[in-house]
Prior knowledge:
The protein is mainly alpha-helical.
Amino acid sequence: MAQMKPGARSPLMEVAVGFALGAVGGCILGATEDPVDRTLAALTAAGPLRPVMEEVGTVGALGLGTLIGATALTAAMTSVVAGVILAAAVASVFVATRSCGASHVDSVGLWAAAGFAGAFGTTLSGATLGVAIEWIVKNCGMVGLLWALSIFTLIKPPLHFVFKLLWKQGEACCTLGSVVWDRERNRIETAELQHRQRVAGQMEERIRTLENGGGAGGTEHVTTWATERRLREEIERKKMESEEAEMEQRTIQDWINTVVIKYVDFLAFSGIPMTVVAIVTSGFGVFGYGSHPSVFIVLLALVAVIGYLLMKSSDFKFWMLIGCMGMLATFLIAMLTLHAGQEVVTNAAKMRAAGKGQSRENISARINRQSSLEALNAAFFVAKVCELGLGATVGGPLVRRAAGEVKVIAGAALVAGGLLAGVEVLAPVLGEGGKAGALLGVVGAAGVSVGAAAAVASRSSSWLGTLGTIAGLVIGALAMGKWHIVNIGLQVPVAYVFAMTNPF
Length: 504
């Protein structure tokens, strides 16, 4: 479907179309709210929460918050990047193998194949990471999770360089499709040469006829010249179409390569700041200083120093921005975890003053439970917002690159809806951790649709068109999300900001 230009519609039609497109993106976002909430409730039930509660004393409240937050954000970022890379690989193969015309390069099949591959890759990666995290927490505790997170962070930079080499090799294989272009170019050049030779022969024959005193043969020659002119025009048309198709293919392939390089850099380095914070605070907890005030001071100083070093970089990159945001989110999760435990202590002190004293064991158990509950709730919500935002950074640029707003919004919504239904069906097989990770992947796919709708709003030719699209987005999200005003109210602005961000 061709890209719709905002200026080509009347204001009323622009508002109506914008509202409809926004409503599609909002509805798929709202549709994820209830399954995600039910999964979070299952994760924070007494059984799944017990292994986390038992580890609060080991790593401390701040260590627990930073560790769970960094793990959740790392899993969210990894699943999104896995989806983007898989989509880029599918698109690259599609472009290389269907290189017979411009219409094939910009076809519905290209975006459908790449979109489905990306959404499926994100969901599958999220489910796999969710199962792995659940198994580690149950069998190895928070210390095991700390080791797993540290090892994963350490191996990502080397794998980053290995993947780039492999991608270049794959790109070289895909460029074998240029043989098709060479063959097409040679065929056109041969036809053009044969046409010129034929015309030259006819001209020589005409000259000899005139020199020998022959007749002009007007009707016959006029017909012949008209036929040759049509053949020449047909050859020129095919030559122009072939050059345009080849240029379009190379442009898309160059953009795919840029996307892959940026997102591989993002995967390799963005998790380092929050992982360093988690390692330091958890290390204090392991050595018995989990509740010491100095840990908070060290955490605050560490966040400030890392953030300053990244933000002052002269070559500021997308992964640095997300790394800073992830680190700050991890810091906030740690603060909420610590505050939850302090609230229990404050309430216990009030009850003791009122003559309703409680045992030390009871207070300690309540502190552990409340801290664990807050850490999981905050980390899960932040991971969901991260998935949504990163999905929006894909949908927004796609619309701005004239990929077709209807294709992106409706296609991403349909794929996300199908995956959402599939996750619900496979829930018994996935388990709670796998289902949670898969649902976060679905949120990322929904974020593509939401980001595309936000980009449509920003491209509208009038304020009415912008407001209509935003209204459709918000109303659709609230209606399908059972009027979760706070959750939707936080997610939509984040998606809008990320959709306006250009990571390339």
